[in-house]
Amino acid sequence: MAALSGSIRWGRASVGVSFGALCLIWGLTFVVLRVGLREASPLTFTAIRAFLGGLAIALSLLLSDQPFPRDRDTQITALAMGATNVAGFWGLQSLAILRITPGETAILIYVQPLLVALGAWTFLDESLSLLAMIGMVSGFAGVVLVIGGQALLQPGQSWLGYAFALGGAVCWATGTLFFKSRPHRQSLLWIAALQALYGSVPLAALALSVEHPRVDLTPTLVWTVAYSALGASALAYAIWFSLLRRHAASTVAAFVFLVPLVAVVGDALFLGDRFGFGAFVGGVLIIVGIWLVNRQPTKPNPINDMHKA
Prior knowledge:
mainly alpha; disordered C terminus; 13 helices; disordered N terminus
């Protein structure tokens, strides 16, 4: 996978297809998770997804003669990212999708870039442009409209589901801010592999302690695990980091705002979920906010985040 990505000649068409594929894979992951979680308990499913995704990336790197990183910096980074980006983010994402729609989950989780901008301004002394400030106000107003709009449309909706989705965004943002503060000489693909492998351990422990692990070995479970582990994790990471090597992080990150849009459309097409006008307007405000925050960064960052759907 890593060797393949390094051998591709990237023309404009290839870059466009790669961006499109990335948004499609990550956007539809929310829909696929909803289907897969019918066949397995949520934390158990997520632990399997994390382990298999991390294993696939690790084997690819070893086969392409990239040695296992033993340095302390990489191991500390991977452990922290495994706790926040995998155990926290992915675990809460699965719990949210059980209670609210995949589209709602995607919209609320993708306030993460807004939280990162706010956290970087607060803790990392990064300044904010006027556009970024407007984007954060727009995004957080959108969160209020999404939750309020859906609560009016479906009064029985689970507030716990909204809390899980926003908690996932907070975990993802926390991992991103930690990563931004770390040395950037580590292998990004090895960190992607190790964070998934390390994150699968607390997920499995939680699954054993707080839920009754259930796995119905059906064709549906097999293809949804394969999609979320090999597609949304391994393949998508290879595309993501290949794009980051060739383009500014801000340019790549700006396309993140398309992922919740794909998730909402996929949710409506494949699962038939409805959205009220307030939720629609809120989603638009969040998407615009993400775009504004990433539109004109005040200083280039080596990577916007360690992205996980």
